[in-house]
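Encode chain A's predicted structure.
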Amino acid sequence: TIRLDSRKTFRNLENLLDNADKYSGPGTLVFVSLKEHEEQLRLELKNVSFHELPGDLDLLKGRFVRGDASRNTEGSGLGLAIVDSFVRLQGGSFSISADGDVFRAEVVFPAGAKEQNSGAPEE
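Encoded structure for chain A:
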């Protein structure tokens, strides 16, 4: 069991998956993993980017920034900025990185966000 705000967490997942869908190359896969690692819970999404990635990826976490500045599709440009904000509000961290054209987004929550299930039913 993880103690997180369900609305913020759903919005984070929605934004990350929408981002992967919009910016992935045609016919490529999106990889999603959730793992416990060294007293942390890690959610990772990886996809092959359709657009060339900027040198400073942290710019993508800024408000109103899009993967390709020239694109004219729907979206407010707030997706990754919202993820960053909502993750930090819940005590976690959010990072993005790239290896060539593979874009990687990682959300990490510390052990404090995890709660042992006592077997008792939830109210």
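The chain has a mean pLDDT of 77.
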